[in-house]
Design brief:
heterodimer, A: alpha/beta, Rossmann fold, five-stranded parallel beta sheet, 33% helix, B: four-stranded mixed beta sheet, 2 helices, globular
């Protein structure tokens, strides 16, 4: 009896990896999925922090894809290891702080490691030539295969016919004529294939699957590094950059002001880690203060917080300030006027 | 068969799923794991993860702030 061939597929939760996986499953290969969590992943729950996004489905798309395909999914936490990819990308950044090519190399490398540890035979990705300006180009495809060490055990079913034959094709584990030659940014071939497979519901994130491709998020990350004087971050930083208005009056501190109830609820979880404040005499948002503010800085921060509360037109507003030990004090401040808040403070 | 507990409070998905997955790797078939979380998203994600990986959700409980899911480890 011949050995059951097994492949591990990088599942992002989007349509391409779903189709690529299905194409290989159709050829009788046993496939299991792998999904890497960098901390910067965009998915339903992060969006769901904000109340305005409550209509969006809260499902985790990679889990949903795996369940739809009927395969196992292994989710791997790579938050710590990913720091080096983001901080020192050999191939540089894309339009924002997205190190897409290094990221892809790293993930395929991790998938190869998993493949070897679990005695699988090859790796599948949903890459389409020409679809992404940085990581999915004809010139970058061999870079990913070589630098990851996956070499000819990396199969891209959606554009395989435009690439040299891989080991699984040469060995007859899979048939090249049942793979595809999709290219470019158009989505019509993928949608037609999805229709053929009977997939009517699938995720197509407009801005990609990573916060690092977002201009506003990237600016906040660069600001954080600049203020700290080093390219360091932890998971709390990553999460807090996703919420609130970030206002930096000075290099030594910034104020994160919740924009609505959903964000305020989420930020409540950080009250023991950051100085925090909210209006006492009027309704107003929760704010966290990050850094090493002086007493004068806290007064300015309180004026900013008061500006976003219902007391914005009042002469004076009482603002409660809590330190990380929970000790409370009250500052009576004049809310900062719209014209007094310099645009360059907004990150 | 033994019962184990996992505290996944203050973690946002998919971290509670990852912690559950990693804990279950250390358990035996038939063991029971009780996971306590604060992200309501786990009510969808942990059962989905359990279904596709062959484990059985015995109970899901929603409180005002906490969500508790009880899983029996499968093959």
């Amino acid at each position: 009896m011949s050995k059951q061939i097994r492949a591990v597929s990088l599942i992002s939760g989007g349509l391409d990896s779903m189709l690529a996986t299905k194409a290989i499953m159709e050829q009788g290969v046993h496939v299991e999925g792998i999904n890497f969590f960098t901390g910067f992943c965009v998915e339903g729950h992060t969006h769901a922090i904000r109340k305005k996004d409550k209509d969006k489905p809260k499902r985790n798309n990679s889990l949903w894809v795996a369940e739809t395909l009927g395969i196992k999914l292994h989710i791997i936490d790579i938050i710590e290891e990913y720091k080096d990819v983001l901080i020192n990308p050999k191939h540089g950044y894309g339009a924002n702080m997205n190190p897409c090519l290094d990221c892809k190399v790293f993930m395929v490398k991790k998938a190869k490691q998993w493949m070897e540890e679990n005695d699988f035979d090859f790796i599948i990705t949903g890459e389409v030539m020409g679809q992404r300006p940085m990581s999915q180009r004809r010139e970058t495809m061999p870079i990913i295969s070589e630098e990851s060490g996956a070499d000819d055990r990396l199969v891209r079913p959606l554009c395989a016919q435009s690439l040299p034959a891989t080991l699984p094709e040469r060995e007859g584990w899979i048939h090249r004529d049942q793979l595809f030659d999709f290219s470019g940014r158009g989505r019509k071939p993928q949608m037609a294939l999805a229709n053929e497979y009977g997939f009517t519901d699938y995720s197509q994130p407009a801005g990609g699957c990573c916060f690092l491709t977002d201009e506003s998020y990237s600016k906040k990350l660069v600001d954080l590094w600049k203020a700290r004087g080093e390219k360091e971050y932890d998971l709390d930083d990553v999460m807090l950059l996703k919420v609130g208005r970030h206002i930096r009056p000075s290099q030594n501190y910034k104020v994160i002001v919740a924009r609505e109830d959903g964000e305020a609820r989420f930020m409540q979880g950080y009250k023991k880690a950051y100085i925090n404040m909210n209006c006492e005499s009027h309704r107003g948002p929760l704010a966290l203060v990050e850094g090493t503010p002086s007493a004068e800085d806290l007064h300015v921060a309180a004026q900013i917080v008061a500006r976003y509360g219902q007391g914005r037109d009042a002469d004076l507003v009482d603002v409660t300030v809590r330190d990380v030990s929970g000790n409370e004090s009250t500052l009576q401040v004049k809310p900062m006027g719209v014209d007094e808040l310099p645009k360059e403070w907004f990150i | 068969m033994s019962q184990f507990e996992l505290d996944a409070r203050r973690l946002l998905c998919p971290l509670p799923v990852i912690r559950t997955q990693d804990k279950i790797k250390t358990l035996s078939v038939g063991d029971v794991l009780v996971v306590t979380c604060t992200d309501p998203g786990v009510m969808q994600d942990i059962p989905a993860w359990a279904r596709i990986n062959g484990h059985k959700v015995l109970k899901s409980e929603s409180g005002e702030y906490e969500f508790v899911i009880t899983i029996e480890v499968g093959e």
